[in-house]
Amino acid sequence: MWVYIKVNRTKGLINTIEQFYRALQFVMEMKFCSPEKHKRTLQYTSNVTKAEKINELNDFIFKSQDVRECKRAEAVKLRLLGLNYQEIANKLGVSISFIAKVQRQYTARGIDGIKLKYKGSKGYLMPTQQAEIVHWINHPEHRKLSALKRHLKDDYDVVFKSKESYYKILRESQFGWRQGNKPKKHKN
């Protein structure tokens, strides 16, 4: 917290000291209270030993299914083990600014600072609709990408921006669909 004191040049130094004293009294009388959700974080940074932090990070790395979260936790763990930023950057293939940012987030919020906030967008199709589409694909005449696009647009009013979304549906149908390769011409 910063306290700014306006200096009045006409009254001299004594007024400035009096202003400073009053501002200091005001600050000392204030009661600082933090929200309940931050009390755990504030205690976390001061009461937990380095070994406990490393064990907590190892558990997080083991349980996390997102590679990006694992890389963040690994960077913090290596920093706690005493490696410098350049060694960590070389070992993990990340930038020094990435390591510094993750370290600050971990110091401020603990494991919650390492977790990704973005969880993805809501899908266009409901699970029941996906099951219907998979059943629809299993008929031989529906196994073309163009047929799938037409079916999704006509029946579900869904048009994907990327072909990868259509390929994903075809892969999930367990049909074993692959985009056909044109035969190569041999030069004689």
Which helices and strands occur, and which strands form pairs?
Blueprint: H1 13-29, H2 36-47, H3 50-63, H4 67-80, H5 85-92, H6 96-109, H7 127-137, H8 145-156, H9 163-172
Helix pairs in contact: 3-4, 4-5, 4-6
Structural class: mainly alpha
Q: Tell me, rounded to a whole number, the average pLDDT.
A: 76
The first-to-last residue Cα distance is 80 Å
Determine the fraction of residues in helical runs and give it as a percent range.
Answer: 55-70%
What is the number of beta strands?
A: 0
Low-confidence stretches: 1-14, 30-45
The gross shape turns out to be elongated
Beta fraction of the residues?
under 5%
Oligomeric form of this entry?
A: single chain
Continuous helix count: 9
Order of helices and strands: HHHHHHHHH
Largest sheet: none
Rg over CA atoms, rounded to whole Å, is 30 Å
Can you describe what's shown?
The longest helix is centred in the N-terminal third of the chain and has 17 residues, at 13-29. The protein is built from nine helices and no strands. The chain is mostly helical and 188 residues long. Helix content is 60%, strand content 0%. The chain is elongated and about 85 Å long. The model is unreliable at 1-14 and 30-45 (pLDDT under 50).
